[in-house]
Amino acid sequence: GQVRIRTNTSIGVCLEGAQCGTIQFIKEDSENPLEDAKEFDSSLTENDIAVVDYYHQSLNSTSFFFPGYVDTHIHASQYPNAGIFGSSTLLDWLETYTFPLEASLNDLEVAGVVYQKVVQRTLRNGTTTATYFTTIDAEATKLMGRICSAAGQRALVGKVCMDSCSPDYYVESTQESLESTEDVVNYLQEELADPKVLPILTPRFAPSCSRDLMKGLATEARSKGQLHIQTHLSENVNEIEWVSSLFPECESYADVYDSCGLLTKKTVLAHCVHLTPEEARLVQRRGAGVSHCPISNSSITSGECRVRWLLDQGIDVGLGTDVSGGHACSMLATARQALLVSRHLAMKEPDVERKEHVKLSVEEALYLATMGGARALDMESSFGSFEVGKQFDTQLIDVESEGSNVDVFPWQRSAFVSSAKQSVSKTLPPPSITVQDVLAKWFFNGDDRNVMKVWVGGKLAHSL
Ligand code: GUN
Ligand code: FE
């Protein structure tokens, strides 16, 4: 609920060896970053240290480092359809728009073009970690792993598994699905072997997976020291009814996954719009994370996820763009929509006491887009905020960059840079604002034009 702002601060990042990319020190009230580094490790000489001074460069502007976004749910393969969904809802949207596009990515040339584009687009929007669905195709999924690695984006890459209730042109047998999943996992872990690019097992959703397939995937995940798992849960009312008719022996949609061993600390569940209280308790007990996808939920009219209700129960919640159920690759746009959806829930909340409580603040939405996502993925010890020992996964934001959509007026700039002079002499001066207000202006009006640079694990991955 609060953003911690550090001024006059130096950050030391290790750029080689086993610690490569990790934050070594954070020194507030820094006078000289070079001295801070030498104080941290007296064996370092000036030749070992590269000082990059963003502070003096940005002294008169509203510029700051911000943790990179963690997109906990995005279908890389669906990016060509971003914005194309008409008035469809989930199940007809899948049939009409989604399956035909995904099937076309069996062609590696098509897949390469799409995957390159989506990785560049998310990076320039400040996403340092993305949790991707690809398609059922193993070779195209490996290609996606190579593209993420070459671009320097941290990624979890999942080959989609579907052996049931799927079109003839886009389906696999149970055996094929398990074997090609294992093939992709082995490729990413042993051949690509980039610590930033991890496999994630991806049963699409219960209707497109047999019980044997889901159990097989859970076994595969456990046998490799608990791999990450991702799927969709309780997105749309018709989907939920369909699941209960397909799995009548299960108590709930969440119980379908749980009975197959798929609910773990390393599991990310997209949507969770219509969870029952029992299902929420189950998700909480298993320690699985929720990926809230508010743009998607509004676009294909799935519903409004009760984020406050989930958070109040101790469930880890992150945000997902869910391209192309969601039309935007931007996590900032997704965070804005999360805030607005919470206001819609507040308007409908009959309990006056709770009305305020269900609203998400700017600070909370930004938390969900960064640390919330890291926690949902059970990776908060590696990234999501600026802490010693974490990876330096960072954006350099300039609220007033060239072409910026955010207008900061001269008297407002003084909120950000305390040394700036107030030059207004009217009897009724324009209202002064706080740093939090500048952040809010960026939150509501900013976009990729404010993302000047992006580093992942200390390596520059995007520069405007
Ligand atoms: N449920 C099953 N597949 C999908 C998908 O591709 N996107 C969304 N939003 N929901 C799904
Ligand atoms: Fe999705």
TrEMBL record:
> Listed GO cellular component terms?
cytosol
* Amidohydrolase-related domain segment(s): 66-460
One Gene Ontology term from the biological process aspect of the record: guanine catabolic process
Pathway named in the protein's UniProt entry = Purine metabolism; guanine degradation; xanthine from guanine: step 1/1
Give yes or no: UniProt keyword Cell division. Answer: no
Q: Name one GO molecular function term.
A: zinc ion binding
Q: Give the protein's recorded name.
A: Guanine deaminase
> What is catalyzed by this enzyme?
guanine + H2O + H(+) = xanthine + NH4(+)
Native source organism of the sequence = Zygosaccharomyces bailii (strain CLIB 213 / ATCC 58445 / CBS 680 / BCRC 21525 / NBRC 1098 / NCYC 1416 / NRRL Y-2227)
On whether Hydrolase is a keyword of this UniProt record, the answer is yes
The UniProt keywords, alphabetically, are: Hydrolase, Metal-binding, Zinc
Enzyme Commission code: 3.5.4.3
Group of enzyme by EC: hydrolase
Q: What does this protein do?
A: Catalyzes the hydrolytic deamination of guanine, producing xanthine and ammonia.
Gene3D superfamilies in the cross-refs: Metal-dependent hydrolases, Urease, subunit C, domain 1
Q: Which cofactor does it need?
A: Zn(2+)
Instruction: Tell me the Pfam families matching this sequence.
Output: Amidohydro_1 (PF01979)
Family recorded in the similarity comment: Belongs to the metallo-dependent hydrolases superfamily. ATZ/TRZ family.
Q: Which domain of life is it from?
A: Eukaryota
